[in-house]
Specification:
One of its GO terms (molecular function) is ATP binding. With 344 residues, the protein is α/β, with parallel strands linked by helices. Helices cover 48% and strands 9% of the residues. Strands 2-3-4-1-5 form a five-stranded parallel sheet, with helices on both faces. The protein has a two-stranded antiparallel ribbon with strand order 6-7. Helix 7 links the parallel strand 2 and strand 3.
């Protein structure tokens, strides 16, 4: 039975075989050599752990740099209410980019906060500016889903091996990647520690320093809200809040709350470089999300429609009701229902 990885070699060889066969059914020596060589190469490629060498730079598919200023402008226009996250992430990316050759390890960040606060949105903005084309983005932007990729508790060892192999293979083919672990709080405890050699750049078979790892989690979301309300009750404005107000509680939440980072060596060994708080979004930020969505659709937003959409958004916790409980996560659906009333 032919294995899928070298089946294509076989088909290609057959094509050359039939094209080169002479009238009397003989194969010329060059074609014969090609047929045997291609088939044998494919066979041993499948049997070995060999990973294709990094040839992507030749085709422009392994980018080494990007325009951080363009990303900054995109964040300013489309990413709302997260002054702390914006400052940390842009500073971290700029520093990582400028000193990439002297980095000791890849950049590792943990985005923490309520659902709908912009964690996924920011990772997508980062990827869209690091990788200019959709083709390159598909090759270099990798999302690991905590809820759907690690379903069976009995398969933890299998998941570990697969995760390590997949990440290593991607880096081996090109050292510039963005790995996003979405809904890390659903990943079984202990799985992520398998990546420690890669995250510390201690796997001598690869150089992981130019890749970026981002863990997205709801862990710490409640702690952020509690701390925010405490600062707010003392008269401290949102814009005056700083990373120092949240850093320790984020580390403790990630380490102690159930999920992929619970009791993890990634935290114990100080592998995570930045714990990034995503503050809960307020009414003004939701309005900006609504306006941005209509602008993207190139449709006019009248005041009554804006009010109707806002009425669909739930705010909490009581009694303050300052924050949109789902942030801007459902705004595109709400906008779609109002901008296309005939479909409702």
């Amino acid at each position: 039975m032919l294995y899928s990885k070298y089946f294509s070699f076989y088909i290609l060889s057959c094509l050359f075989f039939f094209k080169s066969t002479a009238v009397y059914g003989l194969i010329d020596p060059v074609t014969g050599t090609f047929v045997v060589g291609a088939f044998v190469t494919g066979y041993f490629y499948n049997k070995s752990n060999f990973t294709m060498p990094n040839i992507f730079p030749i085709f422009g598919r392994c980018p080494k740099t990007y325009d951080i200023k363009e990303l900054e402008r995109a964040i300013e226009k489309r990413f709302f209410g997260q002054h702390i996250a914006t400052k940390i992430v842009l500073s971290a990316l700029a520093g990582n980019l400028h000193r990439s050759k002297s980095n000791k390890k890849p950049l590792v960040m943990c985005f923490q906060g309520w659902t709908g606060s912009g964690k996924n949105f920011l990772t997508e903005l980062i990827a869209s500016h690091m990788f200019s084309s959709e083709a390159v983005r598909k090759l270099r932007f990798h999302v690991i889903h905590g809820r759907s990729d690690f379903i069976y508790q009995s398969q933890i060892n299998v998941y570990k091996e697969k995760l390590y192999y997949d990440v290593k293979s991607k880096i081996k083919s090109c050292d510039t990647n963005v790995f996003v672990f979405d809904e890390t709080h659903y990943i079984p405890i202990g799985i992520l520690d398998i990546l420690i050699p890669i995250l510390e750049n201690n796997d001598v078979s690869i150089d992981s320093r130019n890749s970026i790892f981002i863990f997205l989690t709801n862990a710490g979301g409640k702690a952020i809200v509690t701390k925010y309300l405490d600062l707010w009750s003392k008269g401290i404005s949102r814009e005056s809040m700083k990373i120092q107000d949240f850093d320790i509680i984020l580390q403790k939440s990630a380490f102690n709350e159930k999920g992929g980072l619970m009791k993890s060596g990634l935290i114990d060994s100080h592998i995570v470089d930045y714990y990034v708080p995503f503050l809960p979004l307020e009414r003004d930020h939701v309005v900006k999300c609504i306006e941005s969505e209509f602008k993207n659709l190139k449709k006019y937003l009248d005041p009554s429609t804006k009010s109707e959409i806002l009425e669909m958004v739930s705010f909490g916790p009581e009694p303050e009701n300052l924050f949109a409980t789902s942030g801007c996560k459902r705004i595109n659906q709400f906008v779609a229902s109002q901008s296309n009333p005939d479909l409702v």
